[in-house]
Description:
Blueprint: H1 12-34, H2 38-66, H3 69-76, H4 78-86, H5 97-103, H6 109-137, H7 142-153, H8 159-180, H9 185-201, H10 207-218, H11 227-254, H12 258-268
Helix pairs in contact: 1-5, 2-3, 2-4, 2-6, 2-10, 3-9, 4-9, 6-10, 7-10, 8-9, 8-11, 10-11
Amino acid sequence: MRARAGPDFPQPRRREREIEEAFDRILEEGTVRLARSWPSLAATGTLGGIDVGTGVLAYLLVEHSTGQTLLAGLAFSIGFVALLLARSELFTEDFLVPVTAVAARRAGLRALIRLWVVTLAGNLVGGWLVAWLITRAYPELRDTATAVGAYYADLGVNARSFTLAVLAGMVITLMTRTQHATESLGVRLAAAVLFGALLAAGQLFHSVLDSIFMFTALTTGRAPFGYLDWLGALAWSAFGNVVGGVGLVAMLRMVRVPHRLAEERARSA
Length: 269
């Protein structure tokens, strides 16, 4: 016998309404992000790099003490918890929210590029600062930092590193979508911990996180690679992150609400 729809069995229309409400939250936040001033973008981006750098410190401490990548990845998630609670910003977090606003014609492509460039630059500046502090405050972590940084530098430009970068972009954008699907702080925190741990423990190729790992190696003076190698890794990983975040998650999520996109575009016409 087929179960009847009731309070415990959400009807299709209720599910659609929840998707639309999440879309509206994303759209409003994306519009605000794209309208921020240059100093505001730079500040939130730099703080985002510092927050992720805190996660890198936790990762290196646990990796050094236990040699367990899975445990270190779980420890790293403190960085994503800080990102959420401190309302700072990570480059790859901007693959869904502002992209949706641009797709709805709330802002132009130039505003999106400005957001990406300034946020990424701020992430890297804040991340380098924390990396330098880590290797000065904890000399015992330098060998671990060098080994971890060298791993990402050695990934190179190939199919494997590209797929790791695509997965990284996909994971972070899915985390963003999950957090915007609810107003519960507890659920958002759980998403930050779970997706953050997956990113770090899975050693995915993430433009900002892996840059900070490479910075910790470079600031020891022992790294078997240089800043030009880091720059190449950054460009390749960022490209893969965009493909995974925008192509595999953001665009497909927007396909679920074509009528809302059409409505927003009509208002902007």
